[in-house]
Amino acid sequence: MAAAGIVVIFDFDKTIIDCDSDNWVVDELGATELFNQLLPTMPWNSLMDRMMKELHSQGIRIEDIATVLKRSPIHPRIIEAIKSAHALGCDLKIVSDANTFFIETILEHHGLKECFSEINTNPGFVDEQGRLRIFPHHDFTKSSHGCQHSSCPPNMCKGIVIERIQASLSMEDQKKTIIYLGDGLGDFCPTLKLGDGDYVMPRKGFPVWDLICNKRKLVNAEICEWSDGEEFENVLFHLISRIISIDRKNTSAKMGQLYSVDCKLETMPLPVATGHEAFPQALSVLH
Ligand SMILES: [Mg+2]
Ligand SMILES: [Zn+2]
Q1: Residue 182, φ and ψ in degrees, nearest 5
Q2: Which of 162, 230, 236, 270 lies deepest, with the highest CB count within 10 Å?
Q3: Minimum-distance ligand to the CA of 23?
Q4: Is residue 56 within 8 Å of residue 99, measured between CB atoms?
Q5: Protein residues placing their CB within 5 Å of the ion ligand 2
Q6: In a domain, 63, yes or no
Q7: PANTHER family, from UniProt (predicted)?
Q8: pLDDT digits (tens, 9 = 90+) for 19-39
Q9: pTM for the whole thing?
């Protein structure tokens, strides 16, 4: 397929959905006060497991949590962008500090789960009492994950996940290009792992964007910011179409052929450009 050389890796909270799923569930189920009381006393990931215990003891059922998750805000253009990128042959993966139960419930609700080949996150499952248990992606009670970045929480370094994905991609014949999308502090470490020729799409005005602006020289990937669902779709498809056209040029150069490459990709469902904003702008360099 046209986009078989492209791997798109998404953060989940505030990237695919337009809220933080942990906060969304706690707030919607009226447990914000307790959450804020306990937050200074334990790591976020352990607190979410504790909150699920509290909610369960108050009689809140797993079905109630699922109902709340299905109401979480998601931009319709993002749903369409994910479906189109998958249909084009991009390999889509998630790297998130939420949990499998929250993510799978939301993706299934929108018919998106089958679009993803991997969901890397904290394990979440329902125990025999019907209580949702949430465990760390990396068990930090046994050992540190070893990453020293202050922006990586103890339960998950997304940079280590990206390195594992890169190692498995390097075993394949076809050279792969990575596009990474995220908004949070935890998305900075994986951004640093991207190479020349890869792309990072930080959400403008969010913590990872600030960090990238301040440490521009550390980032090898090309930076293409986005703000909302429409820009998410426009920028993503502009990049996909650019990567396909570069791949085609390289292939024809290798074969010594002189025919011109059709960069328009007429068969692609490219979004209609609504002005200069529709195309990714390189971030201005901030010193
Ligand atoms: Mg996020
Ligand atoms: Zn890290």
Answers
A1: -165, 175
A2: 236
A3: 1
A4: no
A5: 147, 149, 152, 157, 159, 189
A6: no
A7: INORGANIC PYROPHOSPHATASE 2-LIKE, PHOSPHATASE, ORPHAN 1, 2
A8: 999 999 999 999 999 999 999
A9: 0.89
